[in-house]
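User: Sequence in, structure out. Go.
Assistant: Echoing your sequence, followed by the structure tokens.
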Amino acid sequence: FHKMVLRKIGKTYYLAIRLPDGRRIRKRASRNKAAARKIHDELLEDTDRSRFGLTPRDYSPTDLKDKFLSELQPRVSTLVFRDYETLLNMALEHIRDTPLVNVRHKFNEYLNLRKTQGKSPRTLNRTIGIVRRVLAYGAQNRIISFNPLADMPLFRDQPRPRRALTPEEIRQLLEVSGRWRTVWLAFITTGLRKSELVRLCW
């Protein structure tokens, strides 16, 4: 907002707010002057913090992640949900207690650390994608003032050459697969994805 003042109307205190576009709104605060003043001061402080890219005093990356995941869970499979949850837990642990203006730098440190641990560009890009979605969710719902990763570029993923098993390799695999021979045979001959294969019922 552009300006905010505390006014008493009758026995109740209200916040008279003027928005940047010139509109004026009025919000009931409290009948108690001290409580109304506290609400007024806290809103001003949060506004000042957002101007500097700082999160509200009661903002928690964990709370933001939990709200995002609670909305996401009904829309994805259990395997995808657990994958996202694991990626977020690891990334947000690294950037927690970091002001928004510094999140991008801190997140880059985390990505570089994961890269030195041997993580592929594809895994790093998945991490960027899901963390960016969480921060976008926070910005859209006005939990945070902006998304610091909105324009973060992805890693170049060099495609690995694929090679099909030779008939001899397939024969050797089936010979040693024991009780899993039917599973391997279905995998080789149907083109099922791994996630689809593990969900088959026999």
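User: And one key feature?
Assistant: The helical segments are 33-51, 61-72, 78-95, 100-116, 121-140, 167-176, 181-190, 194-198.
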